[in-house]
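Example record

One chain of 224 residues, shown exactly as stored in the release files.
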Amino acid sequence: MGDKEQVKPLAPASQRIQIEEEDDHDQAFPMEIKKYNHNNYIKCCGCFTAIILIKAMIILVLVFTVFRVKDPMIKMNYIEIEGLDVVIRANFRPVTNVTLSADISVKNSNVASFKFSNATTTLFYGGIIIGEAKTPPGRARARRTLRMNVTICVMVDQMLDVPRLGSDLRVGVLPMSSYTKISGKVKILNVIKKNVVVRMNCTMTVDMQRQSIQDQDCKHHVSL
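Predicted structure tokens for this chain:
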């Protein structure tokens, strides 16, 4: 008689249901982890993007407000003239030097210093250059005003070439004009760099009797 096949009894129905539930739970658990990680990734990306946008907005606000490059201003405070009386008594013969001393201030309203190269001041009479002076390089500190003394040696022989000199001497006044140019750079946090050129044109009247400057009018122009 042949060997009887052994039949393995089936597990109870309740045990099979429990095993199936455990398998379903094991399959669902990795899906929950993936979903949780995906949500965290989205949140991290959102936070990172929000931080970048906030920083960009702050930088833009600073660039257009605090860090905006403002116009440096130059002003002619006063002018003194020396030696003109001696030249007048000598009928404008160049027996001595005529000097014109000007006090010029550079006002810097920026949050960074304004560094400039040689500044040039030119003096005109009757449309002819009668004097020129250069000041050394300098720096106007942030939100400060720098004062400079400029001394111009007047070329008397050039004044003799002006046709209106005789009539001006009879009236006792010499109408003159000056031109000052300062070229420099404003650098903010080594990021914002601007080349700045400040120009100032002044008209004035020299009272020969009082040796003083009258009716001074100055206008400045800034190029960024």
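Notes: The mean pLDDT is 78.
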